Amino acid sequence: MQRYIITNESIALPNFIITGDDYYHIKTVMRMRLNDKVYLCNQERTWIAEITAITNDAILLKEVEEIIENQELPYEVCIAEGAVRKEKIEEVIDYLSELGASRYISVQMERSIVKSDASKMDKKAIRYQKIAKEATEQSHRKKVMKIDINVSWKELLKEKDNYDLCLFASVQSDENDSLKKLLKTRKYKNILFVVGPEAGISEKETKDLLENGFLPITLGPRVLRTQVAPTYIMAALSYEWEGKE
Amino acid sequence: MQRYIITNESIALPNFIITGDDYYHIKTVMRMRLNDKVYLCNQERTWIAEITAITNDAILLKEVEEIIENQELPYEVCIAEGAVRKEKIEEVIDYLSELGASRYISVQMERSIVKSDASKMDKKAIRYQKIAKEATEQSHRKKVMKIDINVSWKELLKEKDNYDLCLFASVQSDENDSLKKLLKTRKYKNILFVVGPEAGISEKETKDLLENGFLPITLGPRVLRTQVAPTYIMAALSYEWEGKE
Q: How far is CA B182 from CA A245, B127, B166, B177, B237, in A?
C-alpha cells in the first residue's frame, strides 16, 4: 500500500485532503480510484485512509484506522559531510533518509572540490528535500531528515553545542576508539558525526575538531569513500541500537 | 600513494612488471615517472615499489619494502541478491567490494524484473569484475570480490553446503532474530546472506529458504531498498567483528 507524508494542514480528522505533488502522484501516477486505500502519516501518527472523492485539484480521504508504528532510531543522528558533487549528495541523502538519520549538513571544507554557488542553493535545497521525503516514505519512516547545505566550517564547529557526542571519521590508528567501544562507554541522546569530502579532512580541520571536543573514530580497516562512510555509520548505529539481543 | 592489485605473473621479486590497463593508468592517467612509488599487492602480500623503467608496453618496478597490513574481514561473507538492473548491480558491487565482502551472487528470483540475457552475460561479467577490482584497490583491500551472475534459484539453494550460516533479509517480525543476537549465539566461519530483488522474496522462495535451513533476519524497522540492504549487512558485520571494545 502506498505511503504519503502529509502536512498538518491536510489533516481534519477523520478526513484528509491532499493537493499538489501527492495529488498528482495518487491520481496520475498510481491511477487510484474511489475506495482505494493508502497510508498517511505526519511526524507522529500513521493512518490507513480511504479515498472518498477525487476532484480537479484534490483527493479527499477518510480515516479507516490509526496504526501504531515506530521506525525511528532511539537517538537523533546528524551526519555532516564535506561538500561533494551534487550526484553524490543526492545518493547520500537517499541512503541516510532510508537508514534513519535525522539531519544532514553539507559543509564547505578545505578539500571540498565543489565550491558553493549561492544562486543555485535554493533550487538544490528544494530538490534535496524532495529526495529525502521520497526516501522517507519508501522506508516507512515518518520524520523527514532535515537538510542544511552550504554550511561554513565555523558554523559547523558551533553545532557541537547541540549534540552530546561529537565524532569524526578518521583513518585507522591504535589511539582511536572504535564506534563500538564508544557507544558502550559514553552516555548520549544525540550524535553529530563529521565525514570529510573525497580528499579527506585537512590537518587544520582535524586540529579544530580535536580542540572542539570532537573524537576521532575508526570505521574499520578499509578506506571508505565519502559516500559510503555515512551509510556505514547509520547501519552500525541501527545494528547496535535496534538489534534485540 | 596509488595502489594496484597485480597478478602473480607480474611478480619476480624483488622486481615487478606491469602491463595492460594498469600500465596505461600509471603512464597516461597518473603520468608517473622514474623513481615514483606505488603500492603493489596480490591476494596475500603488499609491497611499496619504485618505478625503474617505463617501456612502450610495460612498467618495471623494484621492491622498496614489504608492508604488513590486513584489510580483510575475519570471516568470509557472500551476499546473494535477486537480479536487479545493471546500474543497481554496479552500485552494490562497488559498495560491497569496499566494505569487505568476499563474493556476490546475482540470482534469478521470481520477482526479478530484469530477466537474464545470456548473450550479454560475458560482457557484463567483465565490467562487474573491473568495478570490483577498482573498488578493492581504492579501499586498500587485496582480495577482489568474486562475482557470479545469472545464477538460478536452484543453484543458489545448493550454496548452503558451502556456508556455515545461511541467512535471508526479512521484514520485521517478533519471531525473527536480529543479526546482533544471531552473531552472538551461533558459531560460523563464513556467511551467506540472501537479499530479495526490488519487489522482495516471494512466498514460495521464503518457503524454500526456510526448508533449506536459511534463517530470516530483520535489518531494523525501516524498509530498506534492495541496494541499501547489502551495504547495511556489511557495515553491521564490520562494526561487530572489527570494532575493538
A: 8, 35, 11, 6, 11
pLDDT confidence of residue A1 = 86
What is the pTM (predicted TM-score) of this model? 0.87
Whether omega for the bond prior to residue B230 falls within 30 degrees of 0, making it cis, is no
**SS3 state at B17:** strand
Spatial separation of the C-alpha atoms in residues B115 and B5, rounded to whole Å: 33
Q: Which three cell numbers stand for residue A210?
A: 580535536
- By three-state DSSP, how is residue B169 classified? strand
Helix (H, G, I), strand (E, B) or coil at B109: coil
pLDDT digits (tens, 9 = 90+) for A183-195: 999 999 999 999 9
C-alpha cell at position B177: 532474530
Reduced to 3 states (helix: H, G, I; strand: E, B; else coil), residue A84 is coil
Nearest to A16 by CA among A2, A1, A37, A30: A37
Say whether pLDDT at A172 is over 70: no
Check whether A216 has a pLDDT greater than 90: yes
With an 8 Å Cβ cutoff, are A222 and B95 in contact?
A: no
d(CA B32, CA B22): 12
C-alpha cell of residue B170: 526479512
* Confidence (pLDDT) at B113: 84
Instruction: Name chain A contacts of B219, Cβ cutoff 8 Å.
Output: 238
- Residue contact A225–B98, C-beta within 8 A: yes
Which residues of chain B are within 8 Å of residue A244 when distances are taken between CB atoms?
177-178, 180-181
Q: Is B235 left (phi over 0), alpha (psi -120 to 50) or beta?
A: alpha
ipTM (interface predicted TM) = 0.86
Whether residue B65 contacts residue B38, with contact meaning beta carbons closer than 8 Å, is answered with: no
In whole angstroms, give the CA distance from residue B236 to residue B228: 12
DSSP track, A116-148: P-HHHHHHHHHHHHHHHHHHHHHHT-SSPPEEE
